[in-house]
Design a protein that fits this description.
The longest helix has 21 residues. Helix content is 79%, strand content 0%. The chain has 107 residues and is mainly alpha-helical. It is built from five helices and no strands.
Length: 107
């Protein structure tokens, strides 16, 4: 997971989450989810991203349910960070923590 595109995407995703999840425009969130889904096809993370995208696009999904998906995604991302090397390892762990915090803020 350490190619240049993913490193840039990691940096931009981390920066976006640091600004606060509720401050992100829905279109930007969906676009980011789609980008990550494409890069991570066939993985558990991609499946969770798909569930999150459907939840965000659907009507009537509670903040708590979205928070649970974000928390799951955070745990999966942090676990992926444990198998990465170099700079990607710390960025994935940071991203996992930010996703988990965002999830906790909604549950």
């Amino acid at each position: 997971m350490a190619d240049m595109t993913q490193t840039v995407d990691l940096d931009s995703t981390i920066a976006a989450l640091q600004s606060g999840i509720t401050s992100l425009p829905p279109e930007a969130v969906i676009s980011t989810i789609e980008s990550w889904q494409s890069q991570l096809q066939g993985t558990e993370i991609a499946e969770t991203l798909g569930e999150l995208k459907m939840a965000l696009e659907g009507k009537g999904m509670s903040g708590a349910a979205i928070g649970e998906l974000l928390s799951d995604l955070g745990a999966q991302t942090a676990a992926a960070g444990g198998t990465a090397s170099g700079d990607a390892m710390s960025k994935l762990q940071q991203l996992g923590q930010l996703l988990s915090q965002a999830g906790s803020s909604l549950t």
